[in-house]
Amino acid sequence: MKKGILLGASFFVAAGLFISGCGNMQDANQHGQHNNSGHGAHGTEHRSDSSGKAGDTKVHAAWAFSDSKPRAGQPQQLTIQINGHDGKPVQDFEINHEKKMHLIIVSQDLSYFHHIHPEFKGNGKFQITTQFPHGGKYKLIADLIPKGGTQTTQTTWVDVEGTPAKSADLKPDQTMVQTVDGKEIKLSFDKEIKPGQEVMLNFQIKDAKTKQPVTDLQPYLGAVGHVVILSADTENYLHVHPMDEKATGPDARFHTTFPRGGIYKIWGEFQHQGKVFTVSYVVNVSGS
Ligand SMILES: [Cu+2]
What we know:
Number of strands: 18
Structural class: mainly beta
Mean pLDDT: 84
Helix content: under 10%
Largest sheet: 5 strands, antiparallel
Distance between the termini: 39 Å
Number of helices: 3
Bound molecules: copper (II) ion
Radius of gyration: 19 Å
């Protein structure tokens, strides 16, 4: 065991499996296998891990599941220990969109998307029980802000035992109109998406049957909706911000910047009549 893992290990003696957020088991191309030779190097890696913005807070995440090998369909307690690069637990976190941590779980092909909020237990520790639908590889992305620090994204890969789902190729959608839970949602952009240029996303929400605009969206996580964007290779997790947090529909506008060309998947989550619905789109950003 290397130093970074041992530091994490002292916080979960009972847990079965340790995955270091800095150099985890499967994420060889990003970090190298268990390459935890020094904390200084990790900071650089984390910057490339998130949206590519410099200045992310230097923290280290250790991930542990209650079962040493998580199995599809079986509830797993996930513990995420956030320590500073001095090895000491981060004592508190800023509340961002109503939560101290947002955790996104996606399958490698991005067909599965799950957005949950681990509970802060104090002393740098977050916990939640979750389960994976199928066997295969999943990426876990924790979005957090240490108190007084800046937003950071900590990621790891998990290999889940069990029958894998049929993996789907990520192809750009032909239409930007989707029907989900009785809503018809059209996604449009204010201009052609170009790498490195800010673009506005507009989700326009109608009743699928009556085609009447939905004007009474409810706030979700303190805003009109929540949008997550990942590149097809999962390397780029984009920060997306609502233009008008208090909007209630039919338009929900957000802005973001796609860092490079390629295929991306976009998930929008909205709340109407007490129910959250998720709509997703696959887009191609041309250019390099
Ligand atoms: Cu969240």
